Amino acid sequence: MSNQSFSLLNTDLNRLDLRIVENGIFHGDKSWRFNDVISSFNRLYFIQSGNAFIERDGLRCPLLPGRMYLIPAGTRYNYVCTSQIQKFYIHFELELFPGVDIFNGLRDYLDAPCPDGCPENLITFAQNGSLSCLLRLKSLFMELIAGFLAQAVGEKSYGNDYAGFYRQHAVLNYITARLSAGLRVSQVAQALGIPRHILSRSFRQDTGIGLKDYMEQLLLQEIKKRMLTTKQPLCQIAEELDFCDAYYLSRFFRKYEQISPREYRQRRTGQE
To answer: Where are the domains of the chain?
Structure first.
């Protein structure tokens, strides 16, 4: 007898965290015009009809019917409709580690022809609501994302890109389980039994990010997610994330985004 197991299935596959932030069928006109948009999530557009484009640094990319476009989180684009547009959209995060999206580091959009039956099959599965259709929906969506990932990232660089985060898995697990404005690097170090200066140095060496910066990045993402996907008032978000009050949360948010959380929520309306 023999037994062959594959560590990829119970390590990396278990780590993949897919979160759908928003989705829907969008009909827009010339009022669909937004400048300098930077999203904390990836945007996947299936263009069904119309005339529109995205633009950066004076370079335009037309959004053509029959094609799909992936716009990575963290990229800055203008979004412009010249007449009308109809599209099916999915905004999503796909993280291998907390705060580390698989499209991190990609600074340009990707596009490809829509496969046969897409996005119609995605919409049909989503409308059905059965468990089997839910599984088919996830399978089809992940297949599309895999195609974009293969287009964007050399397969051989995969292990090197994330090796440092693997070495810091205990730190990542502790932070994500206790994420709050009150969490300090010294607490993490004490809980893991590692001197603070050694922990900070090793984390930066392994990930290229300062530990304090990483913790604040996760906290910022959590605020954005709640602002976009819930109707929670700012004071409630502040309380649940252990800020002194809504004022301190706003000050923290503005430090990174240059606008208030309320402005961020308002600007997002209609930007599908």
So the answer is: 7-157, 168-268
CATH architecture under which domain 168-268 falls: Orthogonal Bundle (1.10)
Give every CB contact of residue 227 below 8 A, 6+ residues apart in sequence: 237, 261, 264, 265, 268
The pTM assigned to this predicted structure is 0.78
Nearest CA to 100 out of 177, 9, 163, 191 is that of: 163
What is the residue type of 136?
Answer: R
Both tokens of 81, joined, read 């409709």
Bridge partners, residue 101, by sequence = 95
pLDDT in tens, the chain (272 residues): 655 554 544 556 677 788 888 888 999 999 999 888 888 889 999 999 999 999 998 899 999 999 999 999 888 899 999 999 999 999 999 888 888 888 877 888 999 999 998 999 888 988 887 899 888 888 999 999 999 888 876 544 444 567 788 889 899 989 999 999 999 999 999 999 999 999 999 999 998 889 999 999 899 989 988 887 788 999 999 999 999 999 999 999 999 888 899 888 877 655 66
Q: Which CATH architecture has domain 7-157?
A: Sandwich (2.60)
116: left (phi over 0), alpha (psi -120 to 50) or beta: beta
Rounded-to-integer distance, Cα 206 and Cα 188, Å: 17
